[in-house]
DNA sequence: ACAAGGAAGTAACGCGCGTTATTAAAGCGC
DNA sequence: GCGCTTTAATAACGCGCGTTACTTCCTTGT
């Protein structure tokens, strides 16, 4: 920077003013041009670390996930990343691998790097408890919530998702809709079932509990559940299946095809999660709902930026809709 | 840090010595204990940015990928990440989205952050040309190579992969092995075909060109190709299919099942890429080869660490084996 | 002609730390 | 008791930059 100043025939301060577009500093165009030329000629690059030190603003946000691999975390990262870079902020990403020790170590490193905020994301919607150190810095939870309900969080709107999926099947003319659910104890399963039942009631149909079977989140479990549903007498057999996730839909597909039934003519299927590799390549392609991971990532950075700037949050608990992806299974 | 020094009754320098385990500095246990106690009591955390500035070592490596989403990039990141954190180094990750402008911007930011090395990873094995700015810092290519052949690179061993897949089918007793290949012009397709033919020749079988058909990397393309192969007269029909990737294997599965043939009894299948969501949930589960993305990521950080330390590289071009994942389709 | 005010630019300090050169005290052999 | 080495610790500088307080020069109005 001193070299630039010397070459441009000004002081280092002036160079700094130009680089930061300092408001209130009167820099004639001619001087500015000389400085920019010098920067270009010398190939000068400001040192981000030194700037951070002097300005007392690191520009970093931390992002802790359980695993970096896996489509979910990757999408959150994508969303957060793009939003952050656009804002000239940067993401220090760490994976906890589900290990509290690694998680604590990662958090330590982040605090040493003076992150201005922390994003904590989980693979599936559930409650979490953070290490105490997380209180030292603004924190936003993504796809999870803390038991004490103190931290702001961003969650998928499971209820409206279940409603939307069911509604889609109702619109296609189905009235007996089987629901192969996830583990019934988790928030996703509870919310989606509520949405499912609300959609039915809104259509004037009384929810039939026997049409709801847990598939335990596996393809095999869903296969078994689908067999059970499809082998009922014709009058009780569902003409559509709403599956808790796409892997489960895969199992359901097998059960359906095995019985010589066609999708969607004989049985329609809606999945959940939009696991691209499954949904887009099943035959026929699977209509499913997407968990809005990328949107949750960007929203997380937004909220963090607000918090870091000292602004209050309008909403402490944000829910984001799960969009329906129309393919060929309905 | 001054507070710590004051509380411990020593100078800031002494605190620094303790923090860095400075060799040659004689610190009595008693003094060290007092300092560590003071650190603990005050909850002091060193400022990583300031350390970097003073020591002139940022501790950062940059990682540029085309997309952060997608299983490939995610695995590379996982590998690089775990290796880097273990070494107290950190990854500044950016996605180019295939856009040269974004790529250049990302690189600029990385250089401003004074990364000590750059990892450049692509989604599929191919040649690349880097922005000139990349020359300013040690660079290692992952899953790609530069046309000039100047930069060190890490590549999957396609030839041995093709050989291993074919060998597995030969070992299972197959002699007419169809190969539904990727776009024949790309390195992966070329290497794997070489391996395929070598394995055949080693088994005393003359490669039959008509058994090799491009599937153009899509499930539909592979489906068409598989139909063509399976509809040949019995004597010319392959009893096993080696597919260029798992999506293509998915298409092949459909063609096989449609004809009432069973996997693996009538037709065995080997895929490539180990796209977990497909390979592990197809029925029967798909035997496939994994691209060693995670290993490539860790190796990349290793090489970068060596380069950043000024050590010469033993090998300029590293290839890593593609392991066979045994499931149920052979 | 002169004060007032703005335009253009600078010197100097501090951010939090690593590191070198130096000092002061303590131990040791005789 | 004296010189010499080791031990323990420190003052002071610099890393690359942002920022504040200050100076100098030019314009403008009267």
From TrEMBL, chains A, B:
PROSITE patterns: HTH_LACI_1, HTH_LACI_2. InterPro entries: HTH_LacI (IPR000843), LacI/GalR-like_sensor (IPR046335), Lambda_DNA-bd_dom_sf (IPR010982), Peripla_BP_I (IPR028082). This is LacI family transcriptional regulator. Residues 1-55 form the HTH lacI-type domain. Keywords: DNA-binding, Repressor, Transcription, Transcription regulation. GO terms for molecular function: DNA-binding transcription factor activity; transcription cis-regulatory region binding. The keyword Zinc does not apply. Pfam families: LacI, Peripla_BP_3. It comes from the Bacteria. It comes from Streptomyces dysideae.
